[in-house]
């Protein structure tokens, strides 16, 4: 499916459903704006969105578009809802697009978006009721576990020390479950247990790979609050491990800045340079690539190194 078709079908669903169920021009305006951002279904490259990736899985599995599209749209809306919740928690890019939108309305926006995702599944035609029930159950399970992962993630801030193993356990819940959700929403339509199990595992690896990549990038951005919250994501975990072993004073600097936000802000460039120079930044990206490779080894072992598998790999990597 080409980009124009993805965007046209997405807009049609939103116009028909949102205008009927949620008579709020402001909600529709914000929803379209969020979905038009880079990496989203209405953005410049919709095939690079989770929706586009899920549709590509449907194509690989020979799922017809009438069934695959509503599931893929549901995935896109669930991920958007999760992004909004995450931004509210971390105070990133907040409030939503609107300078005067209070936190209460931002919360309602996230809730509405999540409910729209379930509406997309429920209104799907030509799917047996037991299959639809299985998909709803998987979506619900994934969201519950991802929410638990987000809850645990909020406790992972310096000076609390988190091991790499603990961090990976958290993102396996927080993000791996979103990856599972994205793959299973369409894979369950194949009604084949072996394929469902494959996509459950591959999806988890892909979700973790995406989170690792984001954590490395977000620690380097002033527009994100990972550094100012001293979130114990892998770049900081590996940097502290290096400092404890070498005794180079970085861990002592972190203790000081953890008690003074102004001092933390003043030293942010030095902290980021240390993360890069000690190899923690590269380590995180390499681990992301390893999880991506683990996922595609599973996929290609089952489906072969076909053109569709190659296209799926390129889509996940953001290549065109």
Summarize the structure.
Its cofactor is Mg(2+). The protein has 320 residues and is mostly helical. It has helices at residues 3-21, 25-35, 50-60, 65-90, 103-122, 129-153, 164-174, 176-187, 193-218, 234-246, 250-257, 261-266, 268-277, 280-303, 307-317.
Q: What does this protein structure show overall?
A:
The protein has 320 residues and is mostly helical. It has a single domain (3-317), classed as Farnesyl Diphosphate Synthase (Orthogonal Bundle), CATH 1.10.600.10. Helices cover 73% and strands 0% of the residues. The chain has 15 helices and no strands. Helix 3 (50-60) packs across helix 8 (176-187) and helix 6 runs antiparallel to helix 8. The longest helix has 26 residues, at 65-90.
Task: Describe the secondary-structure layout.
Elements: H1 3-21, H2 25-35, H3 50-60, H4 65-90, H5 103-122, H6 129-153, H7 164-174, H8 176-187, H9 193-218, H10 234-246, H11 250-257, H12 261-266, H13 268-277, H14 280-303, H15 307-317
Helix pairs in contact: 3-4, 3-8, 3-15, 4-5, 4-8, 6-7, 6-8, 8-9, 9-14, 10-14
Keywords: Magnesium, Metal-binding, Transferase
GO biological process, one term: isoprenoid biosynthetic process
Cofactor: Mg(2+)
Helix content: over 70%
CATH topology: Farnesyl Diphosphate Synthase
What is the chains' assembly state? single chain
How far do the termini sit from each other? 14 Å
Shape descriptor reads globular
Tell me the name of the CATH class: Mainly Alpha
Largest sheet: none
Q: How many helices?
A: 15
**CATH homologous superfamily, by name?**
Farnesyl Diphosphate Synthase
* CATH level-two architecture: Orthogonal Bundle
Average pLDDT, rounded to a whole number, is 89
Q: What is the SS-derived class?
A: mainly alpha
Low-confidence stretches: 94-99
Instruction: Return the domain count.
Output: 1
Q: What's the gyration radius in Å? A: 20 Å
- SSE ordering: HHHHHHHHHHHHHHH
Report strand %.
under 5%
* Secondary structure tally: strands: 0
Family: Belongs to the FPP/GGPP synthase family.
Protein name: Polyprenyl synthetase
GO molecular function, one term: metal ion binding
Cofactor: Mg(2+)
